[in-house]
Amino acid sequence: ASFLFVIGATNAFAPQLAARQQSSQLNLFGGGGGAKDGEKKAGGGMMDQMAMFKKAQELAQKKNQIDKELAELDFFGESADGNVKTTFKFVPVKNPMDPNPDYDAVKFEFDDAWYESASPEDISAAVKESILNGINETNDKVAEKYQALQGDLMGAMGGGAAPPALEEQ
User: Fold this and answer.
1) Using 50, 70 and 90 to split pLDDT, how confident is the model at 169?
2) Least enclosed by CB within 10 Å: which of 77, 86, 109, 124?
């Protein structure tokens, strides 16, 4: 009787080798049935994945083209009193882990008369204001350029319509 108990106890921890029924259809090309009344089955197979991959490549090419166009443009910032003007260049993202682009301040212009009479604190505040204004202006222009790409991305992901246009602040 104890021998049967030991066999029964070991069977409790043994894996169950029940036969499972598996479909032999791979669903590589959108098959798999399940659709009724001529409806296309949601989901995909290999062909849908290939179409999505191709769309992703097209979007990446569009993004690279937009980045190239933006890199050729000059963007400007100005202090409130107009005594400091800054020129910026768009620097496309090189690191995919940091999706935020950079902006290089490539040129500062100062009003000569103001510069001679201004204190270092006034100069510093005006430069800071010009840089912040330039970054905001650059962000707005970059966002406008990316609107078309965002609409394409939403369409590719099944989101449908393009996002609403940016509002002026």
Assistant:
1) very low
2) 124
Q: How confident is the model at residue 133 (pLDDT cuts 50, 70, 90)?
A: very high
Amino acid identity of residue 156, one-letter, is: A
* 61 token code pair: 């090419």
Contact between 84 and 146 under an 8 Å Cβ cutoff? The reply is no
CA distances from 98 to 66, 75, 109 (A): 18, 22, 31
Query: What b/e sequence results for 79-102 when a residue is b if at least 16 CB atoms lie within 10 Å of its CB, and e otherwise?
Result: beeebbbbebbbeeeeeeeeeebe
Rounded to 5 degrees, what angle do the CA atoms 64, 148, 54 make?
55
Q: Provide CB contacts within 8 A for 67, sequence distance 6+.
A: 90, 92, 93, 101
Provide the whole-model pTM.
0.58
Please choose, from the candidates 73, 75, 74, 78, the residue with its C-alpha nearest in 3D space to the C-alpha of residue 133: 78
Question: Which residues are CB-neighbours of 46 under 8 A, at least 6 positions away?
Answer: 28, 29, 30
- What letter represents residue 50's amino acid? M
